Amino acid sequence: MSLFKLALNIIPRPFLIKMSYLAQPFVSFYLRGDTYTDPIDGKSFRKFLPYGYGVQRENVLAPGTLSLERHRLLWLYLKSTTFFSEPKKVLHVAPEQCFYKLFRKQENLDYLTTDLFSPLADVKADICNLPFESNSYDIIFCNHVLEHIEDDKKAMQELLRVLKPGGMGIFQIPQELDREETYEDFSITDPADRKIHFGQYDHVRIYGKDYFNKLRNIGFEVNEIKSSDIATPEEIEKFRLSPSEILPVCTKP
User: Fold this and answer.
1) 170 close to 251: Cβ distance less than 8 angstroms
2) Residues 90, 109: contact at Cβ < 8 Å?
3) Are residues 60 and 24 in the same domain?
4) 118 and 231 share a domain?
5) Which terminus of the chain has fewer CB atoms gathered within 10 Å of its CB, N or C?
6) Predicted TM-score (pTM) of this structure
């Protein structure tokens, strides 16, 4: 698995996405079993794969959909809403591979993806200057993006601008809940130093508990949804969720 960790750290993400499509069927077949279940596709495996740019977490990457803990938590939350049943205009920033095809197939969704670099993006765009009209989208997903953006305040303002009043945004980030305030230092530019300070070579900050208030200060109403609000302890283990994860469900007044 050291090769897996090495690949995460040295291979550009667009190439990793393409490579994962090729390897996924073989890995999925090899790991079939009944210990853990991915709620996204309902398939079970004897183990999940490890994942992490620094210290790797065991049994977190589902072999079928290549989902992580945060993806499975988001999926379970969406299943409790009208996301899959009512017409929605959706903007997906930096679309996750485990959701892309599933959301694209949903007939109730008018689904558009955007990113500067992802091969899955319909529109190549800078999150700090989105080329969309104000009040355009019912739902916006922007997960594990803001920690890469120096001017995250501007990015949040853009997300608020293009979201419809009453619309929902989900903006997950890596977060240290034992840290009161977000740590950032833009003088740290070397990838190796960023890995030491921020946990990953291409991150520019570590968010603390103040993240939710950052969103509120921009103008969002924020509902902090815990894993335990969505799943039982047995489900948290079976689905390999993070017990401490908090899902920021944002609405535009």
Assistant:
1) no
2) yes
3) yes
4) yes
5) C
6) 0.89
